[in-house]
Amino acid sequence: MGMFDGGFDAVVIGAGHNGMALAAYLAKSGWSVAVLERRTEEGGGLCTEEVTEPNFLHNLHSNYHSLVGLCPVYDDLQILDHGVEYVRPEVQMGSVFSDGTAITVHADMRKTWESFARFSRKDADTWMRLWEEVSGYMDLMVRTLMYAPPIRLNDITRALAAWGIDEKSEFLTARLRTMSVADFLNRHFENDRIKATLAFHAAICAYQPHVKGLAVTLPLLLGKIANWHLCKGGSHRLAHALMRVLVRAGGRVFPQVPVEEILVEDGRAVGVRTPDGVVRAHKLVASSVDVNQTFEKLVPARFVPAKTAEAVRRVKYQDATLFNVHLSLGGVPRYRAAAFDPDIDRAWILNIGFESLADFDAELAAVRLGVLPHPPRLNVAVNSLYDPTDAPPGMATGLIRAFAPYSLADGGARAWDHIKHAHGRRLCERWSAACENLDGLLRKCAVETPHDISQKIINYRFGDWMVGRIHPDQLLDHRPTDELSQYRTPIRGLYLCGASQHPHGYITFAPGYNCLGVIADDFGLEKWWAAV
Q1: 334 neighbors 345 (Cβ within 8 angstroms)
Q2: Are residues 122 and 97 in the same domain?
Q3: How far apart are alpha carbons 59 and 53 in whole angstroms?
Q4: pTM of the predicted structure, to 2 decimals
Q5: Residue 505's domain spans which residues?
């Protein structure tokens, strides 16, 4: 009997974390489930590889996991019992400035207050009020804004009023819907360096500071500023744990089986065609690949309604993506700014170069023109500070990320091949200038251009790690389109469970989890997970 004979209740396209989680829930609900993956390893962006030297483990894409302890999937699937261990760094992130000063954000928020207060006592007090207010509503906001199908922006305003928040809140108000991240920070804070540090946190999550309307989710982002977690042994450990959960529940994962077509009969998705044969789906097909691939490549055009096809064509992707440098190091860096704040040497994530909100505007304006910003501004991480297993004893790994255009003004996307190594050296020099010792620690490096990233992880169209632009036009019930925002499609039995869907990319599990709820409603599945 062939491996696909008999078919499956559900066929999931793509073994990223959203597709794997959805498949695991369905398998634990008694369904037969197959996950088909074009690559050799499950996990999608959860890939960890030795790209510089043997025994140096580099997270190529997913490095920061900010919803551990907040996301219900970890508990529902008991992921932490299947070989995953997280560490929450004591010094979560920091900013080093050109005058030798620094700000540090700590898991202990009192220490964060002390760092902020060195720049502005007023801002430090404002921050603590904001932190305490948002923390009090964090569970409610996470469940409402992330782990549920998207609601309209107007309904968020009504919800704030219904919860009694809008009337008594200093920060969570209806005004957020018309404000940018920069507007919010300028309204509540006075010090440029504190504002830059908070905007850096938002920018890591692809929330560009000057886009009107994005302040609506800023309190949720700021509420997670001290919840960044590092997956020990590499982010691929999370992918492997999902595989174990799925297989133990009776599900199957088939690597190196790319899907070539979604089969539609009488208006219903009934399976998929692969190079190894047809895989029948008795109940549904769920696509975790991006919405453009799904409707422009996998579903034959004759089955896609014209209005759906047109809306999908209009989906936009981030106009600023990332250039990555992975480094093997002979030890951990020490910063010149440690003379001002010694804790900066223990900051896991570091901002080098963003010192005001105007810096973000200048950086992103250059990127949108296809130009490399000068001087470069960096997002740096040294995982080995908190995970000594990712490098040989006494050694360390380093990660540099910098905003970059997918397509260069001079030569397009493939022009990266001619300048990528020089640009990588330029970023290393920028990092080294902030350090006391980095020059003597550098061993080897590997670079990834936005074009490289899009070719390896094809869901990251145009290098977009959020799999769709973070903009009010493509958030909540507009993501990825108005029609497709509720995880169902106009083709019966075809669902969307990937990062194109609400809320967005990153390791949230929310698209898969929310798609699960819709499937449960459609098929009358008992929601055993809701009672956990």
Answers
A1: yes
A2: no
A3: 14
A4: 0.95
A5: 8-44+235-315+466-531
Q: Other CB atoms closer than 10 Å to residue 124's CB: what's the count?
A: 19
Placement of tokens 């030795």 in the chain: 50
Determine the 3-state secondary structure of 92 from DSSP: strand
Domain boundary among 456, 484, 514: 456
Last residue of a domain, one of 192, 225, 258: 225
Give backbone dihedrals phi and psi of 263, rounded to 5 degrees, phi first. Answer: -85, 130
Question: What tokens does 388 get?
Answer: 């000594």
User: In the numeric block, which tokens belong to residue 530?
Assistant: 């809701």
* Furthest-apart CA atoms within the chain: distance in Å: 72
- Residue 524, judged by CB atoms within 10 A of its CB (0-12, 13-18, 19+), counts as exposed
Residue 50 in any domain: the answer is: no
The pLDDT tens digits for 92-149 are 999 999 999 999 999 999 999 999 999 999 999 999 999 998 887 777 778 878 899 9
* Number of alpha carbons in the 13 Å side-chain half-sphere of residue 287: 33
Closest to 447 (Cα-Cα) out of 398, 499, 509:
398
CA distance 141 to 87: 24
Tokens 């001079």 correspond to 410
Same domain, 487 and 439: no
DSSP state of 425: H
Q: Which residues contact 402 (CB under 8 A, 6 or more apart)?
A: 322, 323, 373, 376, 377, 378, 379, 427
